Backbone:
């Protein structure tokens, strides 16, 4: 089994929302995660998905596309990225390449809401970035 040694967060796609997921092909939660992320990548050209299969070969049922990359990675190497005991471990980066959120499990609703907010240039909690906000409480103070 050949593992990736060159994966780095610097290699994520620029000007796209990036989802990096450490998964397996056999755990039930990872299977749901894989199916959801593959579908998400197919439907959204502004999202790039990287599936890192921990300690296993890449399943032949998952094909790489222009928005989806699959990589095999050893458990020891995955620990360098924050994987501790279990997968899925999902990292979401905004279009600037900044890490926005880490998920230690799969929750489709939370991930979908976060992706929609990022697509609309909102922070994950639904607020606008500081440069787009008007702090009304300060507006008439001086």
Residues:
């Amino acid at each position: 089994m050949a593992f990736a040694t060159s994966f780095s967060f610097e290699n994520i796609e620029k000007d796209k929302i990036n989802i990096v997921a450490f998964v397996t092909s056999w755990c039930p939660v990872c299977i749901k995660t894989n199916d959801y992320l593959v579908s998400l990548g197919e439907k959204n050209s502004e999202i790039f998905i990287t599936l890192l299969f921990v300690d296993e070969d890449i399943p032949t049922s998952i094909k790489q596309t222009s928005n989806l990359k699959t990589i095999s990675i050893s458990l020891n190497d995955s620990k360098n990225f924050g994987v501790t005991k279990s997968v899925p471990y999902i990292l979401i980066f905004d279009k600037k390449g900044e890490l926005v959120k880490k998920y230690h499990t799969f929750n489709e609703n939370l991930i979908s809401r976060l992706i929609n907010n990022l697509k609309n240039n909102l922070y994950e909690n639904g607020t606008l970035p500081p440069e787009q906000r008007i702090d009304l409480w300060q507006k008439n103070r001086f």
About this structure: The radius of gyration is 17 Å. The beta strands are 17-23, 47-54, 68-73, 89-93, 99-103. The chain has a mean pLDDT of 85.
